[in-house]
Design goal:
One of its GO terms (molecular function) is cysteine-type deubiquitinase activity. By secondary structure, the protein is an alpha+beta fold. The protein has 3 helices and 7 strands, in the order H-E-E-E-H-E-E-E-E-H. The protein is globular.
Length: 159
Amino acid sequence: MEDTADVKESLIQPNGHIHPILASLILTGRATPYLHNGIIYEGTEDTMSRPKTGVLRRAEVGHLVCQRSETKFPVAVGSRLKTPTLPIWVVRSDDSYGVLFNPNRELLRDYHAENRFDLYYYSSSNNHNKSTIVTIDTRNASTNDDYNTPVLENIIHTK
């Protein structure tokens, strides 16, 4: 699980939420707190450089993260999770998880199919038990204001 000395929590938290490290284990087969591509070395000239191993290969199922909470560090998700081989993404907004997908397996392989398509969203939230269908039209420019747009739209914009 990498060097997680700063993580003192269990993988399943007392409130029932799963820790992001467990989500990365489920999605990539490797438990790591880092979602960036490859290995990044962090350190100064005075200290030894420490590797932070992220996602080493393109995932079949993607992961998108949107955090509105000011108290948490920003999460850098690499392209290997943003562009999976299947059009399925596990999405996390603060501590809530959901699934965003399109049943057309060829969606990410055809440039023209990415112009206009539907995404289906299911949330782990107790008050959200129905699917949400979102039509994406990439031909239209849109603005993104993190605090005034819906959470689902912010999640999609992270892609």
